[in-house]
């Protein structure tokens, strides 16, 4: 598949669809207002004509039969806001046309004609228009079709009716994508659909047929369709309605295969190790050989047999369904191995095995469509089998009222319809409050008020599963056979109950590429929710989802996830790591190169977790960090799986990671270094790494030494109190800087008179909000400095008494009788460089990892270390000395 065509077309298509829908809305007297709300022109009905006169004074007339749809459109725009409603209409029609295009190319339309292109695939007059007299679609008036066709000048009107009839015909099979007949968005379908510059012509011409051969095209279309919206919102505090655009990322196919094959597939192979399924899974990683006691633990939790119909797989952030489609492939092979009839398998998988959730309606539409297309490959009658998919867009309950629904549903039969119902209302409300089903409805409406923001992070107790399934079945029955009030109420409540039922279940496999969003991007609602419900993983949405996915799983569940790889080592995610290696089992992990995702540059890893902890388990790890470019990741993974001696395949016991402070996922660390961590204290026992001051305005408070009056610089302060009585305003400060070992970068001074009085008072007044007075108790002490973010290895530099330091030039200060020169010598050694490469692979040398390095105090054993370091500081012996600035020599003050 050539994604370049899709990448070029889809963003332009989004703009065109929105612009076209906006113009169409204007024809019906609906336009954007001053503050985003809609301006809706009045409607006048004159006989069988509806007359609309917008503000521009240009009158438009329409058949009166459209008045209901126009009113529905007006209410929709009022409820959602003009911009949001038009956005929804645009992506709905984009999705529908893409779906029809895929189906016509694959021959899945029942009548066998092409709807968007010619009989041979050419752009131009559609085959359905040429052969309309031979087409039979539900609701299509054949007499009117013949009349319009014979007229010779009504092709535009005729084609519009044919296209809408096709959409209506697909409603029964795909109601999530093709809405009912009275769908207000039909009014926004533009005119001139047969013209050379129409939306349909562009779709046909811009993406060649060969790019439509795999259903994966649907995911790529969605990825690039929202790419411009993603660029607009990324890096900002994200509104709830923009969360999908900010967080959606299409997962490369090979990573999806790895995730599914090593979760769903591995579960099957553990019970049936001789299964032929193994040969069909190129990214399956055969578990490493385990010690007998470890194998005994694995045998104890491995079921003797598995019924394929009982395997439940969930993707809680399913996007366009890529993971679910791959899970379908693996499950299909499992069913076939067990001898199920081929035509029975698709419906069994869709109804029993696969579950997907997303907050984005358009994504869930495409996910459901993609699954049905996979099923259609195996069962040509799948559209008529009444399959109920378990792929849902989370819906808010804000518009629902429990008492009204309870009255209209009349589940107990106590509510008396008709004029006398008010006589019984009070008594029946008392009954309602004591009914368990009523209480469930009240609970669900309260629980899902913010479903479009929190999505599948919302928890529903597992004890709700059976009652919810019973209620869902009742609502389904009422939707089909209830009275008018029951049908309406059941259709309103059913989506809430169904999503609650999916959330209440526990799953054998949970597979996801969850959304990535740091706390800085979270809006206030999401941030508060994370703080209250996921306090230990609230730093990012992806880490919250890791915790949530673990809760979704059964006791023996298998998880497959792809996330940013920062959780493997950053201090922010220490709690998450410790939980994974202590309470669960990290089975395998692939660490990708920085640019392994197209089109995003996000450093990620893909990994497998067993919810059950197996002590002593040997995990498998693949490092692709040295193989640049996304095109190199898949073949190098295959090579590693086939040849474990390749050099980038590693085995390690996750339990050993607990022996390293912070439990980093240090899979390449040798046993000898693990023993070093076990047998020695860390640096933090002998020295204190500290972040320094954050001025809030470096331009105002930090200067080069030559920018200020030399006599106004204090070089010999010994403590904080001296700054309260000294006349000098400026004090030497170390602040990161260029790469230098041993000494240097002493050319800046800080306005620290009266302990930074000016910074503190402006901060208190709100004029300097970024100010933080960290590390002040270590000011003016002798120590070592380094740049906490750098493009290369850490370089430690000595500074003597009299210096302050800031947050980018962090300081480390010896304790008791430890010598500063020894600490600096150790951090500048090749041994420490090797250790830090494991602890800080992102080159973020913040205080946490620095303090976690194992250290042995050698002063008594090697008193010459300090002398060696001092000699290294001499310009005569240190070749870097020639590069020192004049002020560095001045500040050295020997």
Automatic annotation (TrEMBL):
Domain Type II methyltransferase M.TaqI-like: 352-597
EC number(s) recorded for this UniProt protein: 2.1.1.72
GO biological process: one example: methylation
EC top class, as a word: transferase
GO molecular function terms listed in the Swiss-Prot or TrEMBL record: nucleic acid binding; site-specific DNA-methyltransferase (adenine-specific) activity
InterPro entries associated with the record: BREX_1_PglX (IPR047939), DNA_methylase_N6_adenine_CS (IPR002052), MethylTrfase_TaqI-like_dom (IPR011639), N4_N6_ade-DNA_methylase (IPR050953), SAM-dependent_MTases_sf (IPR029063)
Keyword terms, alphabetized: Methyltransferase, S-adenosyl-L-methionine, Transferase
PANTHER family, per the entry: DNA METHYLTRANSFERASE A, DNA METHYLTRANSFERASE YEEA-RELATED
Name of the featured protein: site-specific DNA-methyltransferase (adenine-specific)
Species name: Vreelandella rituensis
High-level lineage: Bacteria, Pseudomonadati, Pseudomonadota, Gammaproteobacteria, Oceanospirillales
């Amino acid at each position: 598949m050539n994604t370049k065509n899709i990448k070029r077309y889809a963003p332009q298509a989004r703009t065109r669809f929105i612009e076209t829908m906006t113009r169409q809305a204007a024809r019906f007297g609906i336009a954007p207002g001053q503050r985003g709300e809609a301006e809706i022109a009045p409607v006048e009905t004159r006989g069988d004509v509806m007359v609309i006169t917008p503000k521009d004074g240009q009158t438009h007339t329409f058949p009166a039969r459209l008045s209901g749809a126009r009113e529905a459109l007006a209410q929709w725009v009022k409820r959602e806001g003009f911009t949001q409603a038009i956005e929804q209409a645009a992506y709905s029609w984009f999705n529908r046309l893409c779906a029809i295009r895929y189906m016509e190319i694959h021959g899945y339309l029942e009548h066998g004609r092409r709807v968007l292109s010619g009989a041979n695939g050419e752009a131009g007059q559609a085959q359905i228009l040429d052969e309309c007299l031979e087409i039979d679609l539900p609701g299509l008036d054949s007499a009117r079709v013949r009349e319009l066709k014979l007229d010779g000048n009504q092709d535009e009107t005729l084609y519009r009716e044919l296209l809408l009839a096709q959409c209506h015909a697909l409603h029964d099979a795909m109601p999530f994508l093709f809405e009912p007949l009275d769908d207000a968005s039909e009014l926004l379908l533009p005119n001139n659909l047969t013209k050379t510059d129409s939306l349909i012509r562009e779709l046909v011409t811009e993406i060649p047929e060969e790019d439509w051969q795999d259903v994966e095209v649907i995911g790529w279309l969605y990825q690039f369709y929202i790419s411009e919206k993603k660029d607009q919102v990324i890096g900002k505090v994200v509104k709830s309605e923009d969360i999908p655009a900010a967080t959606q990322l299409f997962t490369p196919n090979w990573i999806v295969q790895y995730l599914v094959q090593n979760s769903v597939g591995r579960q099957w192979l553990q019970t049936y190790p001789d299964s032929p399924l193994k040969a069909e899974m190129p990214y399956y990683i055969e578990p490493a050989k385990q010690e007998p006691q470890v194998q005994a633990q694995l045998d104890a939790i491995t079921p003797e047999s598995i019924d394929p119909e009982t395997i439940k797989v969930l993707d809680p952030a399913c996007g366009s369904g890529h993971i679910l489609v791959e899970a379908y492939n693996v499950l299909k092979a499992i069913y076939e191995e067990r001898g199920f009839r081929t035509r029975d398998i698709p419906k069994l998988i869709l109804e029993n095995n696969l579950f997907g959730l997303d907050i984005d309606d358009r994504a869930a539409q495409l996910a459901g469509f993609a699954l049905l297309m996979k099923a259609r490959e195996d069962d040509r009658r799948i559209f008529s089998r009444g399959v109920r998919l378990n792929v849902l867009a989370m819906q808010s309950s804000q518009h629902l009222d429990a008492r009204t629904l309870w009255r209209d549903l009349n589940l107990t039969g106590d509510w008396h319809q008709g004029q006398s119902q008010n006589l019984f209302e009070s008594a029946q409300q008392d009954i309602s409050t004591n009914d368990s089903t009523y209480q469930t409805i009240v609970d669900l409406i309260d629980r899902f008020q913010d479903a479009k923001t929190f999505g599948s992070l919302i928890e529903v107790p597992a004890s709700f599963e059976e009652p919810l399934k019973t209620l869902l079945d009742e609502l389904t029955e009422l939707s089909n056979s209830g009275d008018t009030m029951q049908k309406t109420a059941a259709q309103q409540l059913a989506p809430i109950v169904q999503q609650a039922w999916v959330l209440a279940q526990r799953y054998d496999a949970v597979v996801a590429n969850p959304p990535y969003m740091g706390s800085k991007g979270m809006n206030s609602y999401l941030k508060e929710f994370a703080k209250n419900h996921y306090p230990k993983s609230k730093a990012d949405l992806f880490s919250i989802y890791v915790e949530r996915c673990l809760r979704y799983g059964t006791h023996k569940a298998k998880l497959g996830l792809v996330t940013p790889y920062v959780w493997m080592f950053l201090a922010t995610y220490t709690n998450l790591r410790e939980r994974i290696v202590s309470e669960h089992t990290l089975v395998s992990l692939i660490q990708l190169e920085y640019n392994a995702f197209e089109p995003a540059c996000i450093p990620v890893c893909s990994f497998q977790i067993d919810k059950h902890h197996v002590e002593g388990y040997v995990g498998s790890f693949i490092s692709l960090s040295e193989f640049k470019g996304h095109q190199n990741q898949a073949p190098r993974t295959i090579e590693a799986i086939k040849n474990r001696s390749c050099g980038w395949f590693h085995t390690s016991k996750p339990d050993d990671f607990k022996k390293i402070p912070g439990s980093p996922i240090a899979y390449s660390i040798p046993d000898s270094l693990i023993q070093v961590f076990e047998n020695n204290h860390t640096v933090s026992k002998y020295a204190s790494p500290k972040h320094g001051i954050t001025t809030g305005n470096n331009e105002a408070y930090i200067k080069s030494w030559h920018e200020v009056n030399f006599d106004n610089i204090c070089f010999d302060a010994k403590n904080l109190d001296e700054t309260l009585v000294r006349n000098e305003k400026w004090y030497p400060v170390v602040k990161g800087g260029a790469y230098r070992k041993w000494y240097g970068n002493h050319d800046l001074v800080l306005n620290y008179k009266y302990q930074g009085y000016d910074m503190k008072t402006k901060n208190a007044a709100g004029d300097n909000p970024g100010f933080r007075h960290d590390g002040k108790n270590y000011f003016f002490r002798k120590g070592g400095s380094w740049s906490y973010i750098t493009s290369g290895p850490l370089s430690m530099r000595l500074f003597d008494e009299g210096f302050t330091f800031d947050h980018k030039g962090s300081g480390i200060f010896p304790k008791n009788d430890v010598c500063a020169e020894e600490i600096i010598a150790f951090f500048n050694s090749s041994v420490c460089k090797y250790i830090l490469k494991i602890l800080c692979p992102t080159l973020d040398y913040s205080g946490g990892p620095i303090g976690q390095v194992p250290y042995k105090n050698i002063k008594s054993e090697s008193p010459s270390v300090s002398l060696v370091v001092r000699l290294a500081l001499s310009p005569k012996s240190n070749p870097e000395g020639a590069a020192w600035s004049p002020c560095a020599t001045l500040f050295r003050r020997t």
